[in-house]
Task: structure prediction
Amino acid sequence: LRDTIFIKERYHVAILLPFILNAPLEGLEGSKDQRLREIALSFYRGCRMALDTLEKRGANLEVHIYDVSNDTPELDALLASAEFKNIDLIIGPLQKKSLDKVAKFASVKGIHVVCPTLTKNNILLTSPNVSKVHSSEATQMKLMAQYVARHHSGENVILINSKEINDTRNVQLFKRHYNDALRSLPDSSNRALIELEASSRFV
Result:
């Protein structure tokens, strides 16, 4: 077997977040921009901790931080700049409009993009170079069902079905993946999933 992963001596990481540094502080209080700035700063602190951990483990990273919002001309200028040509990984942006633009740019250049927000899976289907920080509900249901089936085989596993429309898909996904996982286990003592219906007034 030959390892085809090319490991570079140094990686350039771009962090694109809406810090909104040019806005006056007086007009920000209680606004959407202030909330965006708080989210960006909070995410950046966590991101910085993760990158520091990677560097302690031997990764050689050069981190570039950019103040990016939904201002299209400003973002276009950044993506077209010479300094952005050597970027290996992009983290962000937060907002959908700018994220779509960055994803399209990065797919042409072969750059991977990490989406930090709870965006729907649509962007993953159209952009194979994009991954999300948060896994989808479908993935969570699948992994939870498989975990329960493997670690609680032979026990009574009870699924409370709320019968709420918003829960229907998750209930179906859990049941399907649980039964699939159960069939793959060799133990004949495995018990079928018990499903109980509930309502907001009575369990």
Remarks:
- The longest strand covers residues 11-17.
